[in-house]
Amino acid sequence: EKNGYDHFMLKEIYEQPEAIKDTYRGRLRINDGIIKMAGVEDNLEKFLNAKRIIIVACGTSWHAGLVAEYIFEELVRVPVEVEYASEFRYRNPIVGPGDVVIAISQSGETADTLAAIKLSKEKGAFVFGVCNVVGSTISRETHAGAYTHAGPEIGVASTKAFTTQITVLTLIALKLAKSTGKITNSEFHNYLAEMEVIPNKVEETLKSDEHVAAIADIYKDAGNCLYLGRGYNFPVALEGALKLKEISYIHAEGYPAAEMKHGPIALIDEQMPVIVIATKKGHYEKVVSNVQEIKSRKGKIIAVVTKGDKDVSALADHVIEVPETDELLTPLLTTIPLQLLSYHIAVMRGCNVDQPRNLAKSVTVE
Ligand code: F6R
């Protein structure tokens, strides 16, 4: 059932082009110029009147929530807060009627996320679920929702769940932006067209696999690793670091690139691999200067860049290219090489990729 792949994780990484298609199938209707999502349409007033959106989740799903924060604020111009479900539920949160809470969970069974949902409902908020597992507890406990339709995710490290969560959340944001007139029809159409071709671009990005494996071979014995990104790709840096930690047991941290000079830069020496996401736009020039700072401290730079990139590539020790796309959709591409990097490093270190130590696929205890 691994379909010829050595591990479920690798199979699931490779399934992403199809999984993303499955996520937008029937929803993204380019010819009609609409996004069809019953759970959103049936509650459109609640979304449009929301004073703010609160996203609750854990782990990788929380990272998808952070990406969504950037996307919602940009497209819908509504304030968004992203909360660890475990923190939110225990601090007497200010939440109530007029708030829209979006709970994100692959398994739909995460105890803290479920508790955050129950609390939000008690306090009168409208709660929308983004789950992968159909019929899961969270999908039943929420007022409405949208499934990711990514298919079963067996590997403990979440991969296709993450990219499909981002896909669903982007569709919701686009739909709301269109409904409120926050984006023009032509902008809307351009986003739809770009979203439609993202699976092809993910496919193309997957071709970097061998190149990424060669990079993994160089850094597999690292003791630490730093991941940097800005804007939409800051949460991707967090997610890249989490993937490496959980399956290879190498200590890794993700940071917004500009925060480096406020502390983590002290860690940089010739032993430290730094993975920098430096796609075009997204304050590219700022990232170039961050990369220069790493270079001058002899850090080893692995850069994820837009195809044809020159400036960062000239400074980096290793370059991984992703196809060009709209800035807002770059996380769907930049995530891929980071998943592959963690995967190969973990395999080379002899780790149990699909069942890392101390971790369970769904965390049903708090
Ligand atoms: C990381 C990972 C975990 C989950 C987290 C939330 O690869 O798998 O961090 O993302 O436990 O799980 P769900 O999304 O099922 O609520």
Descriptive account of the structure:
- The protein has 366 residues and is of the alpha/beta class.
- It is built from 15 helices and 12 strands.
- The chain has helices spanning 8-14, 16-24, 38-41, 44-48, 59-76, 85-89, 111-122, 137-141, 160-179, 185-206, 209-219, 234-248, 284-296, 311-315, 331-348; strands spanning 28-29, 34-35, 52-57, 80-84, 99-105, 126-131, 144-147, 224-229, 251-256, 273-278, 300-306, 318-322.
- Strands 4-3-5-6-7 form a 5-stranded parallel sheet, with helices on both faces. Strands 9-8-10-11-12 form a 5-stranded parallel sheet, with helices on both faces. Strands 1-2 form a two-stranded antiparallel sheet.
- Helix 5 (59-76) runs antiparallel to helix 12.
- The longest helix has 22 residues, at 185-206.
- The mean pLDDT is 96.
- Fructose -6-phosphate binds next to helix 5 and helix 12.
Give the helix/strand layout.
Elements lengths: L7 H7 L1 H9 L3 E2 L4 E2 L2 H4 L2 H5 L3 E6 L1 H18 L3 E5 H5 L9 E7 L5 H12 L3 E6 L5 H5 L2 E4 L12 H20 L5 H22 L2 H11 L4 E6 L4 H15 L2 E6 L16 E6 L5 H13 L3 E7 L4 H5 L2 E5 L8 H18 L18
Parallel strand pairs: 3-4, 3-5, 5-6, 6-7, 8-9, 8-10, 10-11, 11-12
Antiparallel strand pairs: 1-2
Keywords: Aminotransferase, Cytoplasm, Glutamine amidotransferase, Repeat, Transferase
GO molecular function, one term: carbohydrate derivative binding
Protein name: Glutamine--fructose-6-phosphate aminotransferase [isomerizing]
Trace the largest sheet across and list its strands. 4-3-5-6-7
Can you tell me the residue ranges where pLDDT is under 50 for at least 5 consecutive residues?
Answer: none
Instruction: Provide the gyration radius in Å.
Output: 20 Å
Q: Helical segment tally?
A: 15
Mean pLDDT: 96
Q: Write the element-wise H/E pattern from the N-terminal end onward.
A: HHEEHHEHEHEHEHEHHHEHEEHEHEH
- Categorize the overall geometry: globular
- The counted number of beta strands is 12
Largest sheet: 5 strands, parallel
Instruction: Estimate percent helicity.
Output: 40-55%
> What is the distance, rounded to the nearest whole angstrom, between the alpha carbons of the first and last residues?
31 Å
What class do helices, strands and sheet pairing give?
alpha/beta
Unique bound compounds: fructose -6-phosphate
**Strand fraction band?**
15-25%
Function: Catalyzes the first step in hexosamine metabolism, converting fructose-6P into glucosamine-6P using glutamine as a nitrogen source.
EC number: 2.6.1.16
Subcellular location: Cytoplasm
Enzyme class: transferase
